[in-house]
Design a protein that fits this description.
Helix content: 25-40%
Largest sheet: 2 strands, antiparallel
Bound molecules: zinc ion
Strand order of the largest sheet: 1-2
Strand content: 15-25%
Shape: elongated
Order of helices and strands: EEEEH
Number of domains: 1
Distance between the termini: 32 Å
Number of strands: 4
């Protein structure tokens, strides 16, 4: 699965035991339809959401 914003593979989230517990990425709304990686979520999606709230 790829990030809809940067096109890179969406990162997996691991538990403290090293098991994958989340591979679905983050909702990229309102920037794009689909899922994005953690980096895009933090740098693109969250700022866009904050702007919408202004
Ligand atoms: Zn991304």
């Amino acid at each position: 699965m790829k990030c809809v914003i940067c096109g890179y593979v969406v990162d997996k989230h691991f538990t403290s035991e090293g098991r994958v517990n989340w591979t679905k990425g983050h909702n990229a709304q309102p920037v794009k339809d689909g899922l994005c990686c953690t980096i895009c979520n933090n740098t693109v999606v969250i700022p866009a959401r904050l702007k919408l709230m202004e």
